[in-house]
Specification:
Two copies of one chain form a homodimer. By secondary structure, chain A is of the alpha/beta class. Chain A has helices spanning about 10-30, 35-45, 45-55, 70-80, 95-100, 105-110, 140-145, 155-170, 195-215, 220-225, and strands spanning about 5, 35, 65-70, 85-90, 110-115, 130-135, 150, 175, 185, 190. Chain A is globular and about 60 Å long. Chain A starts with a strand and ends with a helix. The structure holds nicotinamide-adenine-dinucleotide (2 copies). Chain B binds a DNA duplex (30 and 30 nucleotides) through helix 3.
DNA sequence: GAATTGTTGTGAAACAAATCACAAAATACG
DNA sequence: CGTATTTTGTGATTTGTTTCACAACAATTC
């Protein structure tokens, strides 16, 4: 049965991403050990939060000694299955698809866009090193590269239809840039990225602050801000 | 004092966005009234949640009669300050910036990218109808158009420096695509969009599901999914 | 090697969000 | 007009998350 299953990324997981980015930076700077409050300062959370998050993912440090950055990063690689490569397909080579296909950070994190697809024959040529195929080759490529995750950058109107096809071929996770809620069975993970909403919510909070500043009522403001 | 102030968009606000998108669709289909459970079904939440959210934003319906779609949309326009236009600047006309500058949905929602900026002289010409200026004209444009919100699509390394400049000229909200935590005073709203993390977390949840499926342990799975 | 210091790890407490349960209101129907 | 039905709105309850407080422990000092 297909239904709407919005996927909400847990805050603790989001924070783990922050810690990792921070650890990578510290490591580059030659640092070898961190304390929970170091990470806390760098990422804008509290040190208890850091330790609680680590405990959720069963990461242990040494009392008084803090955490070994290498150990931590190793643990996190395990958590995120980063020890192996992940093959991704990207559907829709329009403005957004093209930008994403050129984004080097994906590869740096072992996420390889192995192929991209578009319905438009004019777009079906190699672009920035990654092949652009016609939709008819979707099944073949997904199977060949054992792809489980797709990026969907097609127009709103086609998104559900394309998602259905992806799932027929075994895709289990979709990052969806189209501003629609896809209907999928509960075992498929959908992560909706809605950039209009992201921009609009900043406008919302900026306006709220401007208004509140006028009233000198800071309490309300901080209730909606999290560190 | 500059510090890290991550901005977390409230879940209730995110849901209001969902409701609105749904209402717009229903209106196009000629529907005039909705019940909380209609919206709930369409957006994958519960009907109590819909009503609680509405009550948070002091939206009232009529008992038995449900809600008038036009009323609701009007209320929401107020909430999001959509009755007036919002001028936005975009810094960094690389891959991502170019895609964003061409995105028509921003304009449809009264968010106008009035100008874009890039440090690279080769990029400083008109592109897809929007002017691309050199950074030296930032102050002038921000003041002329009373811009309060910016989109930041410059490389990681320059992000903080550019953010500082934006804030010097009065910018109060930033949608930041660079994978760094910007240090800003607490009255500035930062919304970090980290697409690597978004993709990686889908991989994370997909893997978790695959593993859990093997164990036929669904309980754990659903604890991390929210509707 | 005992006392001191600094840091982790985690139960308990406080806080926040979602769900439940139902009274109140509006409408429909006999 | 009164009874049944439907849906809202919201207190009460449950569930989830963050912060607090401190015991446990490792390292350091004397
Ligand atoms: N451009 C942006 O900055 C931006 C920002 C946020 C969200 N989005 C969303 O991302 C999606 C893509 O946006 P865009 O600006 O790249 O649009 P676009 O029109 O430039 O690109 C869409 C691409 O999808 C292809 N396509 C259409 N139907 C298809 C199908 N059935 N199968 C395969 N390919 C198909 C088209 O040929 C085109 O190349 C849209 O849903 C849009 O709302 C875009
Ligand atoms: N391309 C993507 O799909 C993608 C996805 C997610 C995040 N991002 C992030 O978005 C940002 C931009 O990515 P991109 O792929 O467009 O990179 P890019 O290199 O294509 O574009 C960056 C642009 O910023 C300009 N620039 C550099 N320094 C500047 C400065 N000090 N002031 C003004 N302009 C400056 C450059 O001239 C260039 O045009 C990066 O931080 C990247 O990590 C990109």
């Amino acid at each position: 049965m297909k239904q709407i299953t919005k996927y909400v990324i847990k805050n603790s997981l989001k924070r783990i991403f922050l810690y990792r980015a921070c650890l990578v930076r510290l490591k580059l700077m030659g640092v070898e050990k961190v304390f929970s409050y170091t990470l806390a300062n760098e990422t804008g959370v509290t040190s208890e939060q850091v330790r609680k998050d680590f405990s959720e993912f069963s990461i242990k440090g040494n009392k008084r000694g803090g955490y070994e950055i290498n150990d931590l990063l190793g643990k996190m690689e395990d958590i995120f299955h980063r020890n192996k490569d992940h093959n991704i397909v990207l559907i829709g080579m329009g403005n957004m698809g093209l930008a994403l296909s050129k984004y080097s950070k994906f590869v740096q994190r072992n996420m390889n866009i192995v192929a991209t697809f578009d319905i438009d024959p004019f777009k079906q040529k190699e672009r920035s090193g990654i092949p652009v195929y016609s939709m008819s080759r979707l099944k073949e490529i997904i199977e060949r590269f054992k792809v489980k995750v797709a990026i969907l950058a097609v127009p709103e109107i086609s998104a559900q239809e394309v998602a259905d096809e992806l799932m027929r071929h075994g895709i289990k996770g979709i990052v969806n840039f189209a501003p629609v809620l896809l209907k999928v069975p509960p075992d498929v993970v959908i992560n909706n990225v809605n950039l209009c909403d992201e921009l609009e919510s900043v406008i919302y909070y900026v306006h709220k602050q401007l208004k509140i500043d006028g009233f000198k009522n800071l309490e309300l403001l901080y209730r909606d801000m999290k560190y």
